Amino acid sequence: MTILVNGVAVTDQDWPTPQMAAVHELLRQRAVALGWLDHEAEPAAVNEAIERVLAEEVRIPDVDEAACRRYYAQHAQRYQSDELVFARHILFQITQGAPVAAVRAMAEAMLTELRAQPALFAERARRHSNCPSGELGGELGQLQRGATVPEFEQALFEGTALGVLPQLVKTRFGFHIVAVDQRVPGKSLPFEHVHDRVADDLHGDAEARALSQYVRVLAGQAEVQGVELDAATSPLIQ
Questions:
Q1: For the chain, which domains are there?
Q2: Of 177, 86, 85, 88, the residue nearest 137 (C-alpha)
Q3: What's the whole-model pTM score?
């Protein structure tokens, strides 16, 4: 089905999801409405204008000491020393011009296969992974926090599951099938030792919520067809 945002057709083949393609168009149109972008602008100018929209229109709450302590208490598992995960992965790389939807479909199909037959993981990694670790059956060895990109780290550490994880992990490199073989728990670190890290994490979460809310309001004010966006009609939504 064709995606339309306020009557403008949107191509989603270069985006991980149709929703992301529609959101990009919403933000582009907002930049045009604000007079910060021409309708026929080049992609680089579009991206720059969207960054300006987000910087000037999205309000991110301040992070104070009390909020940091609450966040630390709610996410204590994040702040441990020497926490290790032994993992493997299969990377389906996304390169410029690659058919993203087709790459994702291949990855999803293999994920389904490996969830049913995990013993095939090493063989599939050797044949199909676009990461050098494929030669080792996808083995990444022991990993600790900070050793990988944030999206991959979250998939590894924000849970307790073992085996082939049920969802693909999307990073800047592409789509990953991930298997967690072992978890070695760490020791909790005192709040005072991780204060700056807690503040950064809390700010990141607050920023993500603010961005999501802003996009939902834009979607609520727009006419969007061909894709479902979580729209809101009030800027006061939580």
A1: 1-79+189-238 (1.10.4030.10), 81-188 (3.10.50.40)
A2: 88
A3: 0.55
